[in-house]
Amino acid sequence: MVALFSLWPFVNTVVLSFTDSQILRGGSFVGFDNYTRAFADDDFWVATGNSVLYLVVVVPCLVLLPLALAVLVRTHIPGIGFFRSAFYTPVIASAVVVGLIWQWVLRSDGLVNTVLRKLSVISEPVPFLTDSTMLLVSAMIVTVWKGLGYYMVFYLAALGNVSASLYEAAAIDGAGPLRRFFSITVPQVKPMMLLVGTLSAVSALRVFTEIYILGGESGGPGGGSRTLPFLIRQVGLGFSGETGYASALSILLFLLTLVFSLLGRRLAKGDEG
């Protein structure tokens, strides 16, 4: 199963990346022409920049915010079970449904702009979905919102392994909640933070649905909000889809993802050392 659905498609993508094949016809060997074309393609650099920017913004949020959320929902107060379920609900919701909900919230006549106009905060709608930069930021917000509950569960598991005696000793020494958080909680869950950082980085580089739902098939105005997976789909889609070039872009995305994965692994090893 692994060979059929993982190894063979990967090897085939590598082979196709050195050809000029299209959807409806086989291709001939062109060497590194597809890679040379990618490095000279402005669309490739825009998409790569958007993907890296997505990672730089989203990963810190998904490392820190779920940890804070996990600490909060571990408190023993009446009704906390409801909030645990509520925070996890976006995780089990379909990405398409989540995207459509946020599209309704952020469009020009949507909930946010309507409320801001009623409060006389703005006179013109904020272009959440019609400006390339704002669209990218909006997609980041959706990604973070949907991932909070997922990574919160990771941290809840890690926090469950922290000895309560550490907190008791710190409290006896006069450490307040913030001091206990930074001196005990963060060091104890640091390995999990590195794992969450690696997983969220890989997911951020593969983001597609949020951009597609919020920005449409063009990837925002003039395609300015396209990420690498979005560009790969556009290049390889349709009867005239350039399978060879799309495969080369896929390999470049794989290499970019590999770099950040190895970086996370190196940080983890350094932390263990």
Name the assembly state: single chain
Shape: globular
Q: How would you sum up the major sheet? A: none
Strand content: under 5%
Determine the N-to-C terminus distance.
37 Å
In the predicted model, the low-confidence regions spanning at least 5 consecutive residues are: none
State the secondary-structure class: mainly alpha
Mean pLDDT reading: 88
What is the rounded Rg?
A: 22 Å
Total beta strands: 0
Number of helical elements: 13
Helix fraction, binned, reads over 70%
Order of helices and strands: HHHHHHHHHHHHH
Question: What would your notes on this structure say?
Answer:
With 273 residues, the chain is mainly alpha-helical. It has helices at residues 2-16, 33-39, 42-73, 80-92, 95-106, 111-118, 132-159, 164-172, 177-188, 190-205, 209-215, 228-236, 243-272. Helix 1 packs across helix 13 (243-272), helix 4 packs across helix 7 and helix 12 (228-236) packs antiparallel against helix 13 (243-272). The chain is globular, with a radius of gyration of 22 Å.
